[in-house]
């Protein structure tokens, strides 16, 4: 059942922070559903320029000299690797191994029909990376369903962050299948709320179906903006709350607590499109669609935001 689907090219929301005004860009008549949206190669590259503006530059230089990972999340108190473990555990409480294993395997094997359906949308969004983005960060990379879209971008380096360490083997496999050389893909166990990269260090950030699961949406979006270089882009696909008063929204409200337990903290009723719009990106191109293979994980906002 398709509740609503807009073709990939029709942005229903396009904002420019020059004016801080939200402007409908093209006809949103299709959008009766909601009146507004929803309602060491790698470390070496990322450490190359320790341009962190958080005032801990000397510490970072010392730390990165001995560590494979560049350090500088705004949340870390002293930027030591043990801070990352502490932040990781504080933001997302540790889960038993069997749960992490199970969830990673569900993501790796259970999303195929959805991925097929959204492929045309993703192809169009990821085309924005061509020729412009050498360093890409993916937050909540999971089993790596987006890695195939990076194929053909010669020299691209992809840095995947996810708190579930069990995702790594699937993400690595996906990177290999996408033809990414092993040295061009790095996986780091971390959370979006404290991204272990310096300020303005990546050309693009990708996040698909992840802001539903993070503990703090706004903190994660601030981190996305922080690590993006000026002009860099944030590609997103996020499922959001259905319109109030609809049957779908009723189902979401009922299932939300259970979903958080069985699906690793996934929330069904967030209004993530609004969080993205309010983060202060210079431009946000935001679209909305529903997918028959996503059941009550609908509608979804997708698009590109520019720092
Ligand atoms: C629904 S899955 C989506 C995975 C992948 N992006 C995709 O499109 O299939 C949500 C992912 O977010 C990760 N995650 C959960 N909490 C997170 C956090 N605080 N920061 C970053 N990722 C998180 C989960 O481990 C999981 O891999």
Describe this structure in words.
This is Methyltransferase type 11 domain-containing protein. One of its GO terms (molecular function) is S-adenosylmethionine-dependent methyltransferase activity. The protein has 307 residues and is an alpha/beta fold. It has a single domain (13-39, 97-306), classed as Vaccinia Virus protein VP39 (Rossmann fold, 3-Layer(aba) Sandwich). The chain has nine helices and nine strands. The chain has helices at 41-47, 57-66, 81-91, 97-109, 112-126, 167-177, 217-227, 247-262, 272-277; strands spanning 13-16, 21-23, 135-139, 157-161, 185-188, 202-208, 228-239, 283-289, 300-306.
List each distinct ligand once.
Answer: S-adenosylmethionine
Structural class by sheet pairing and helices: alpha/beta
**Percentage of residues in DSSP E strands:** 15-25%
In N-to-C order, the SSE pattern is: EEHHHHHEEHEEHEHHEE
Gross morphology = globular
Helix content class: 25-40%
- Number of helical segments? 9
CATH level 4 superfamily:
Vaccinia Virus protein VP39
Strand order across the largest sheet: 2-1-8-9-7-6-3-4-5
Radius of gyration: 19 Å
Extract low-pLDDT stretches.
1-7, 17-37, 39-73
CATH architecture descriptor: 3-Layer(aba) Sandwich
**Mean pLDDT across all amino acids:** 80
Please count the beta strands (DSSP E, at least 2 residues each). 9
Largest sheet: 9 strands, mixed
Q: What is the CATH class? A: Alpha Beta
CATH topology: Rossmann fold
- End-to-end separation in angstroms reads 36 Å
